[in-house]
Description:
Layout: E1 18-20, H1 34-45, E2 50-53, H2 55-61, E3 70-73, H3 77-83, E4 87-90, E5 96-101, E6 104-110, H4 127-133, E7 141-144, E8 149-152, H5 156-162, E9 164-165, H6 171-177, H7 180-192, E10 195-196, H8 198-207, H9 216-227, H10 232-241, H11 245-248, H12 250-258, H13 261-280, H14 287-294, H15 296-308, H16 313-325, H17 327-330, H18 337-350, H19 358-363, H20 367-379, H21 385-391
Parallel strand pairs: 3-6, 9-10
Antiparallel strand pairs: 1-8, 2-3, 4-5, 5-6, 7-8
Helix pairs in contact: 6-8, 7-9, 7-10, 12-13, 14-18, 15-16, 16-18, 18-20, 20-21
The protein binds adenosine-5'-triphosphate (ATP) and magnesium ion.
Residues 54-55, 67, 70, 134-135, 139-140, 178, 180-181 line the site of adenosine-5'-triphosphate (ATP).
Amino acid sequence: MHRFSIRRKTSSKQLEPRILTKGLHGIQLPQISKAALEVVDVLTRARYQTYLVGGGVRDLCLEKTPKDFDIVTNATPQQVKKLFSRSYVIGRRFRLAHVHCKNERIEVSTFRAGEHRYYSKNVYGTVEEDAQRRDFTINALYYDIQQEALLDYVDGMRDLESGIIRILGKAKKRYQEDPVRMIRAIRFVAKLGFEMSPDTSEPIFKLANLLLGVSAPRLFDEVVKLFYTGHAETSYRSLQALRLLEILLPQIVYHLEHAETAFYQKFLQQSFINIDQRYKQNKSLSPSFLFAVLFWQPLQVRIAKLAGSGIPSVRALEHAIDYILAEKFTRPIDIPKRIKEGIYDIWWLQYKKHARYVRMVRRHRRFRAAYDFLLLRKQCGEQVGEQLELWAPHYK
Length: 396
Ligand code: ATP
Ligand code: MG
């Protein structure tokens, strides 16, 4: 199968892949983006062993439209860079190349060896090793464009057919190496409608705490991805079921237990429905909106508390917002500053109820988000009808 010799010797348990030739898998060349085909072609002609891998291959096998295609090769990022004029070597944790081709940006990574070197220098490996270090079996299928053949080192095809998310290797070890895999597992369950194998889901209960060791900005990215890829509702339910909600968003769990639970629950549920709908309609989704939603109830509680202690309402509002957006409240997630500014605006505009503010409100650059937020509040039973009418004429 391999037209190129494998340079590095793998560990003792070298594996033979199951090879699915054309006809045994559903992938057709025209389904693959021209840019990805071209990048593979250039690398292959330069005699590098090159495959498509990851979500693109997985989604094609499932007859879903892939978001993008990842390419993996035995060329080092520097070697890739030499082949393409518009390419850049990037990455802090791992170095890889971004190749710009036909208005697309294609990620080209080099076969990576095992995870024990995760935080040290990049250590390149073979395709077999690369397969083992991926997260789930269904994400470790390699497509050879020349042969139109699928290489399966990990029984990924079987899991794809039975709808199973199965972590590669020993779950405990793999979650310890990178706890974000727990969140990714939930994302794929939601996205694909699959189930986790018990050896993938069960360790999560015990290891959830490891997520507290993940960098706060990365957690922010992962949570946004979880809620903003068309499956907010299912993802939320999985987070609850696997007890990750109390790790990632402990404020929500606390308020669901202590505050006006019925409204908050309804509010979250309705917003997830709206968010999923917007995703389907290809409408923009701003992370500010998501967190404005998630922390709306905690904000209400905080305002009430401050107002109760005699602070005037404008100041109460500002203090309450500052309190909710402070790192102490949002952790373990860190919300970037510009997103916080968006949340601040969405919330602050909710309180510009009086007619004399209408001009200012409508001109505000976050008016649309604030308006959607107001609509959501109305949908959930808050009394904001007059304000909506004041704001509405501008809205198309
Ligand atoms: P999506 O359709 O959401 O992009 P994806 O599977 O392509 O799904 P990416 O985050 O784009 O997800 O990652 C591409 C591939 O890189 C994955 O399919 C997987 O093989 C590998 N990968 C990504 N993150 C990890 C991780 N934390 N641990 C191991 N492998 C990973
Ligand atoms: Mg991807």
